[in-house]
């Protein structure tokens, strides 16, 4: 299985949960909407809950050299379940590819536990 999107482990209220970066997912899905608008709209539209479906960390500074802002960016880490749902609502080939990838990652993780 090739790695499409980096999966890491993030602490959610004391539990270690598999997550992915919302920015990485946004880039992979080739979403045309600006990242900050996209993630805020998706969270609001689908009722995702912080520290249940995703967690937020203050990140580094914006990397856009054309418009450096010096403002720290927010980094969103999504549970695999949230990431799969976001992939479904994009309704494109990249969304389907990423969703199937996350399903396979979950299957492999479950096999390792057993």
Give the number of DSSP strands: 4
Count every helix, treating DSSP H or I runs of 4 or more residues as helices: 4
- Summed over residues and divided by their number, the pLDDT gives a mean of 88
Structural class: alpha+beta
Spatially, the strands of the biggest sheet line up as: 1-2-4-3
Low-confidence stretches: none
- Please write the string of helix (H) and strand (E) elements: EEHHEEHH
Shape: globular
Helix content: 40-55%
User: How widely separated are the two ends?
Assistant: 20 Å
Biggest sheet details = 4 strands, antiparallel
As a whole number of angstroms, the C-alpha radius of gyration is: 14 Å
State which percent range the strand residues make up: 25-35%
Polypeptide structure, described:
45% of the residues lie in helices and 25% in strands. It has 114 residues and is of the alpha+beta class. A 4-stranded antiparallel beta sheet has the order 1-2-4-3. The mean pLDDT is 88.
Which structural traits does this protein have?
114 residues; alpha+beta; 4-stranded antiparallel beta sheet; 4 strands; globular
Layout of secondary structure:
Blueprint: E1 7-12, E2 15-21, H1 22-28, H2 35-46, E3 54-61, E4 72-79, H3 80-90, H4 93-113
Antiparallel strand pairs: 1-2, 2-4, 3-4
Helix pairs in contact: 3-4
Short summary:
The chain has 114 residues and is an alpha+beta fold. Helix content is 45%, strand content 25%. Helix 3 runs antiparallel to helix 4 (93-113).
């Amino acid at each position: 299985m090739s790695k499409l999107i980096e999966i890491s482990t993030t602490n959610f209220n004391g539990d270690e949960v598999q997550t992915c970066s919302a920015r990485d997912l946004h880039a992979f899905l080739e979403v045309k909407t600006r990242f900050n608008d996209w993630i805020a709209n998706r969270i609001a539209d689908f009722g995702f809950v912080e520290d249940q479906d995703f967690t937020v960390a203050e990140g580094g500074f914006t990397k856009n050299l054309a418009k450096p802002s010096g403002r720290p960016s927010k980094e969103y880490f999504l549970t695999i379940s949230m990431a799969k749902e976001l992939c479904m609502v994009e309704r494109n080939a990249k969304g389907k590819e990423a969703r199937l990838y996350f399903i396979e990652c979950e299957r492999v993780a479950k096999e390792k536990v057993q």
